[in-house]
Specification:
This protein is of the alpha+beta class and 208 residues long. Helices cover 38% and strands 25% of the residues. The protein has two domains: 5-60, GTP Cyclohydrolase I, Chain A, domain 1 (Orthogonal Bundle), CATH 1.10.286; 76-205, GTP Cyclohydrolase I, domain 2, CATH 3.30.1130.10. The strands form three sheets. A five-stranded mixed beta sheet has the order 7-4-5-8-9. A hairpin with a 5-residue loop joins strand 4 (86-97) and strand 5 (103-113). The structure holds guanosine-5'-triphosphate and zinc ion (ZN).
């Protein structure tokens, strides 16, 4: 495979290879946008900006190089037979809206009911970033997180809720600053038994 052709990991769209432009082409695209916005791209303050933006993009979108399977492949059995709900709430994340390429920022709440093993708690934050650090819709992000948990942990049930503010709704367009979007997905026992969903919501509502 050509070095510039990379499949997107953990994505149903991964069947289609992605041809990546060179870094120089990416930097040139930044210059084009600056000039289109009305800037003089030769002024001193902007000379290094294309390079900085490319570097920032490598960080914002590193999820395309990450693999959820690798994040979730290490599990532990030595938890005294614990098989009740594990919930990590208020996981901060930011992603970028695929429609406007501006951030949406919020918190993820992720729960699962283990079968016979658990995963390191930090990995739920890491798997959120595997998918958040891509161009996304909030719905797709929610679905990808829960799919990764189900595919890799085989839990009795999983629940994912995201709450986020979309800058494309706050800073431009409709300009509804402070509006929060909630998305949620339940699978397994959480989908089948309302009592389990209620427990999830109850634990989410508990004050620290
Ligand atoms: N469902 C969903 N919509 C999103 C998300 N992020 C942004 N959007 C919406 O995507 C829509 C794109 O609408 P368009 O009419 O194609 O684009 P637009 O003219 O820029 O729309 P406005 O934002 O209304 O100005 C907007 O309504 C956004 O609010 C997301 O994560 N999920
Ligand atoms: Zn948007």
């Amino acid at each position: 495979m050509d070095a510039t052709v990379k499949p997107i990991k953990n994505d149903i769209r991964e069947a289609k290879p992605v041809v990546r432009p060179t870094r120089e082409e990416a930097e040139q695209a930044v210059r084009t946008l600056l000039a289109w916005a009305g800037e003089d791209v030769t002024r001193e303050g902007l000379l290094e900006t294309p390079k900085r933006v490319a570097k920032a993009y490598e960080e914002f979108f590193e999820g395309y190089n990450l693999d959820a399977k690798e994040v979730l492949n290490k599990t532990f059995r030595d938890v005294g037979g614990y098989d009740d709900m594990v919930l990590v709430k208020d996981i901060p994340f930011f992603s970028h809206c695929e429609h406007h390429m501006v951030p949406f920022v919020g918190k993820a709440h992720i729960a699962y009911l283990p079968t016979d093993s658990v995963v390191g708690l930090s990995k739920l934050g890491r798997v959120t970033d595997v998918f958040a650090k891509r161009f996304q819709t909030q719905e797709n992000l929610t679905q990808q997180i829960i799919d990764a948990i189900n595919d890799n942990l085989n839990p009795r049930g999983a629940a994912v809720m995201l709450e986020a503010e979309h800058m494309c709704m706050s800073l431009r367009g409709v300009k509804k600053h402070g509006a929060t979007t909630l998305t949620q997905r339940f699978t397994g026992v959480f989908a089948e038994e309302p009592k389990e969903q209620d427990r999830f919501f109850h634990l989410l509502a508990l004050q620290k």
